[in-house]
Design a protein that fits this description.
9 strands; globular; five-stranded antiparallel sheet; four-stranded antiparallel sheet; 125 residues; mainly beta; Jelly Rolls
Length: 125
């Protein structure tokens, strides 16, 4: 469920995550349970360490912190734009992630290049 964005003093909190992508082709994911009480995501920045020709990034809101069904698809087939080139996804409305749910980012490695994919999530406090 989308929540309308509002201006608020001191309303943002940033949290970093990393996906360790191996050199083997495949899908590598991280599940981000943002808080124990739930929160709302405003934006996500994704920064791959290396270029990966043909690699894609997907982002989902999932029903629990280890997978489960997808509540919503937030980004699909976003290309790796190059080494250290940030992909900034500013959500049109804040995505509410309730307690027990998670934000999932998946990196689909087809180029078979090992790298770290850094993720910065901006959420409400």
């Amino acid at each position: 469920m989308a929540i309308a964005k509002q201006v608020k003093i001191g309303g943002a909190y940033y949290k970093g995550y990393t996906i360790d992508v191996l050199s083997a082709a495949g899908t590598y994911s991280t599940f981000m349970a943002l808080t124990t009480g739930g929160s709302a995501v405003n934006s996500v920045s994704i920064i791959p360490d290396s270029a990966g020709a043909g690699d894609k990034i997907n982002m989902f809101h999932t029903a629990n912190s280890t997978g489960g069904k997808n509540v919503a698809t937030l980004a699909e087939d976003i290309p790796n734009l190059g080494a250290k080139v940030p992909i900034n996804l500013d959500l049109i409305a804040m995505e509410r992630i309730d307690a027990g749910e998670a934000l999932k980012v998946s990196y689909i490695n087809v180029a078979s290049i090992a790298m770290n994919v850094h993720i910065i999530v901006e959420r409400g406090r």
